[in-house]
Amino acid sequence: xxxxxxxxxxxxxxxxxxxxxxxxxxxxxxxxxxxxxxxxxxxxxxxxxxxxxxxxxxxxxxxxxxxxxxxxxxxxxxxxxxxxxxxxxxxxxxxxxxxxxxxxxxxxxxxxxxxxxxxxxxxxxxxxxxxxxxxxxxxx
Length: 140
What we know:
Blueprint: H1 3-16, E1 26-31, E2 34-38, E3 57-63, E4 69-73, E5 78-83, E6 90-97, E7 100-105, E8 110-120, E9 123-130, E10 133-139
Antiparallel strand pairs: 1-2, 3-4, 3-10, 4-5, 5-6, 6-7, 7-8, 8-9, 9-10
């Protein structure tokens, strides 16, 4: 399946997905400056995502050095990830506070995460920790 078709499928999935939110404030990742707080969101509100500009786009990679998974992140923090050539296995909204984020999945659950963006020698890479799992991606 072509990258263009995958992007189109992901876009359709993201456009039709409903976003739910948790009602608690959550502490995430202790970075160099200490823990960061994610704002409280009432259960009746939609989550408004935000992500750094360098994270926006199409990424290919996966867990343990795999190259068969994708991650798509749009300007509003909507994301989808899954196996190459397949509909998204997970989608939702990311709310970022620098390198730390909380993923609000479309099914209503949340997960803490962290990312690291590196651009060197014309190659952009993104390391993403979803809970205990590390995913390594290269910009598509």
